[in-house]
Amino acid sequence: MAEFEPEIPISEVKKQVFVACHHVVKALRASDNNLDANLSKLLTDLDSYLSNMAIESKTEVTGFIEIEDQFKEAEKKIQSWESNQSMIWDAGPIEADRFLQAVYEIQTILTGLKGIPTKGNGKEKDVYNRATLALDIAMSRLEKEICDVLYKHKRHVQPRYMAISSRRVGTVNGDSSDSLEDEADSEGLGENERTWEQENTDLVDPTIVPHIKAIANAMFACDYGREFCGAFSNVRRWVLEEYLTMLEMERFSCGDVLGMKWEDLNDAIGKWTRVLRTIIWVYLPGEKQLCEQILGEFESGFSSCFIEISRDTIFSLLNFGEAVAMESHTPEKLDRLLSMYEVSADILLDVDNLFPEETGSSLRIAFHQLSKNLADCTREAFLNFREAVASNESSRAFSRGGIHPLTKYVMNYFMLLPVYTDTLNSLLRDLEVDDSVGIFEPEKTGKDIPPSTFSPMARHLRSIASVLEASLVRKAQLYTDESLSYIFMINNLHYMVQKVKESELRQIFGDEWIKRRIARYQHYATNYERATWSPILSLLRDDNSKTVLRERCRLFSVGFEEVYRNQTCWSVPDPQLREDLRISTSVKVIQSYWGFLGRNAARIGERHVRYTSEDIQNMLLDLFEGSPRSLRNSRRR
Question: Which terminus of the chain, N or C, has fewer Cβ atoms within 10 Å?
Answer without folding.
Answer: N
